[in-house]
Amino acid sequence: MNFSLLCDFYELSMAYAYFKQNMHKQVVYFEVFFRKAPDNASYAVFCGLEQIIDHINHFSFSQSDIDFLKNTHKFDDEFLNYLSTLQFSGDILSVKEGECVFANTPLMIIKAPIIEALLLETFILLTLNHQCLIATKASRIAQIAKEKLLLEFGSRRAHGESAALNGARAAFIGGFHASACTLAGKNFKIPISGTMSHSWVQMFDDELSAFRAYCQIYKDNISLLIDTYDYKKGIENAILIFKELNAQDFMQNYSVRIDSGDLLKISKFLRKKLDLAGLKKCKIIASNALDEFIIEKLLKNKAPIDAFGIGEKLITSASSPIFGAVYKLVAIEKNNQIIPKIKISASSSKTTLPHFKKPIRYYKNKKASFDVLYTYDENVKNYQGYTYKNLHELIFKDGKLVYEFPSLKNIQDYHKKSIDSLDFKLKKLQKPSIYKIKISKKLKNLQKKHLDKISLSF
């Protein structure tokens, strides 16, 4: 689907102004970065590149788009004719999906004529701000849950269909094992999962009949939802059914699920009942407005839960629902020279670091130690005992896609490798360590020079 009009109207207004000033061919460099990770985390997860690539590949204005813009009476025919033939012709550099990233590091660089770069801003930001948010939340949950099975249950609480689909994708990249979203299974080849509903139990005269009928249909991988009425009676009925099926001898994948109440108290009660019945292979699945903070508390108190179904607090990142990536001009190109540009603010955190940059990550003993931001043309410094890599890959060159899509499973595996390279102190939920982002001496001097120059002009 073509979303070229999915842009803030000011972008079109500015595009028209550049066009009327004959500046529309001016090549510029925009940088995408974020200032603070959600939930006061030390890291975030880069996610959403594939959807951005798809948008750019289909970027064009249809005749109906042009007709709509003409009816606004804001633009002349010459500009609209220009838009009707517009396609992306620039370069894009990006961090790989699944990479752990840190505040103020350039995630993407967009080099293109000003109008092309400008009209991509909204779509790039809305995509990254959503998917990075959910992937980061999922990663934090996965780090706390460790070997536990994680099921994404968020569709019905998502902010619209695209949030449900892309949220399921981001959650999988962050470390989840399966999703309840069937369309995400089709579109992204994510394993899908679904269990019994409360309404199934309510449709029968009694709970035992509901369990028995369910098991007659689904003979493998059975999960019984035991708290429609009372979990104590529910576990008794589940045990009776599992005994009828000789589950302890003939089944490998069977479980009970709880969706309400004191999950710590109930799970310990269930585990004791199941073990006494000889059903030690029976797993316990828990859901009910879970997130990483609740799961951490449950596991610290030795809750015998084998799998977690996580919905609303993941798909909306309820505890910290804003990612805050921004899109800033850092340089322009004139006479084959790249000229740095800076934006200053009364808030020092919003003053930008000028110039076209490359982020380099340094490793020691396969552990990420620090990143250094260099200008694009600087030599990378060799630190004794460290290896390094450039975090950026070339995605588009002169408007042509030069990037090969990895599978979603490969992206998930890449994220696992990236998160495993971080010190455990960076992954703590409370008061994590701060990862070092160093700025080259050249960049520091460049920023100071621009700040001094601007201050002198006032």
Total domain count: 2
Look at the structure and give the mean pLDDT: 96
CATH overall fold name of the largest domain: nicotinate phosphoribosyltransferase
Shape estimate: elongated
Report the β-strand fraction as a percent range. Answer: 15-25%
Q: Which structural class fits the helix and strand makeup?
A: alpha/beta
CATH architecture classification name of the largest domain: Alpha-Beta Barrel
Number of strands: 19
- How far apart the termini lie comes to 48 Å
**What is the CATH class of the largest domain?**
Alpha Beta
Number of helices: 17
Strand order of the largest sheet: 13-12-1-5-3-17-18
Question: How does this structure look, described?
Answer:
It is a single chain. With 458 residues, this protein is an alpha/beta fold. The protein has two domains: 9-135 and 320-456, nicotinate phosphoribosyltransferase, CATH 3.20.140.10; 143-315, Aldolase class I (TIM Barrel, Alpha-Beta Barrel). Helices cover 39% and strands 21% of the residues. It has 17 helices and 19 strands. The protein has helices at residues 9-20, 49-57, 63-71, 77-84, 114-119, 121-145, 161-174, 182-188, 198-202, 207-217, 231-244, 247-250, 263-276, 292-300, 312-315, 408-420, 441-456, and strands at residues 27-34, 44-45, 91-95, 100-101, 108-113, 149-152, 178-179, 222-225, 254-258, 283-287, 307-310, 325-334, 337-340, 357-364, 367-375, 387-390, 392-397, 400-401, 436-439. Strands 13-12-1-5-3-17-18 form a seven-stranded antiparallel beta sheet. A hairpin with a 2-residue loop joins strand 17 (392-397) and strand 18 (400-401). Helix 7 crosses helix 16 and helix 10 crosses helix 11 (231-244). The two termini are 48 Å apart. The mean pLDDT is 96. Belongs to the NAPRTase family. Residues 150-352 form the Nicotinate/nicotinamide phosphoribosyltransferase domain. Keywords: Glycosyltransferase, Ligase, Phosphoprotein, Pyridine nucleotide biosynthesis, Transferase. Residues 5-129 form the Nicotinate phosphoribosyltransferase N-terminal domain. Residues 379-447 form the Nicotinate phosphoribosyltransferase C-terminal domain.
